Amino acid sequence: MSHVVVIEDEGTVRDVLRFHLERAGLRVTAFESTRGTEEALAQADALVLDWMLPGESGLGFLRRLRGDPELRRLPVLMLTARAAEAERVEGLESGADDYLTKPFSAAELVARVRALLRRTLPDTPQTLSNGPLTVDIGAAEARMGGKRLNLTRREFDLLAFLTQHAGRVYSRTELLDRVWGADFLGGERTVDQHVTQLRAHLGDDPTRPDFLETVRGKGYRMRPWTDVA
């Protein structure tokens, strides 16, 4: 089981990070500051690091981390409310491998952390496939028969999640929780709208779908291509 260290000073956000990463099958050790993290980091496979922290900032800690011969190659996802391009560039140039802006979806968080883990677990598949559909988690890109689909972030998150769990039925409530996040305030109709949009992108007939199937009274599932062929 991969080990992810989380350093985030906001308790609610820290709990959300832990919940979704553990649900994704990862072992999580969480801290509210950079103090006392050395032992956990020495055993970590990836780090989720908040920019704004009490005492030493996440950015300052990252620069120090990159100067440590034992930890300089640890994959780091910088998490912050700072959305300006100059600040994103500063974070990346300071040594972050990736950058996620608050608020974020659970699916994107997990996808980005898994992409980082591929640096230490190179045998992890980078691309999900289901017949002519391919979903590249790391690149946040989906293709149908080799043609790139022009998806919004949420459409991609939903497609990636359902493709990763092809064959399993998820209720609208579960999808809201797993893809949009537990703090999302929208309703179940949001899921229906995104499924409709994805079907249009996929060329899926809603009455006889090859991919996104409605399971009456239960929710949605991605049909495994073996069921279609």
UniProtKB/TrEMBL annotation:
Response regulatory domain span: 3-117
Origin superkingdom: Bacteria
InterPro entries: CheY-like_superfamily, OmpR/PhoB-type_DNA-bd, Sig_transdc_resp-reg_C-effctor, Sig_transdc_resp-reg_receiver, WalR-like, WH-like_DNA-bd_sf
DNA-binding segment(s): 125-224
Secretion signal, residue range per the UniProt entry: none
Gene3D superfamilies noted in UniProt: 3.40.50.2300, 6.10.250.690, Winged helix-like DNA-binding domain superfamily/Winged helix DNA-binding domain
SMART domains per the UniProt record, alphabetical: REC (SM00448), Trans_reg_C (SM00862)
Protein keywords: DNA-binding, Phosphoprotein, Transcription, Transcription regulation
Domain OmpR/PhoB-type: 125-224
Residues annotated with 4-aspartylphosphate modification: D50
Keyword Transcription regulation part of the UniProt annotation: yes
UniProt name for this protein: Winged helix-turn-helix domain-containing protein
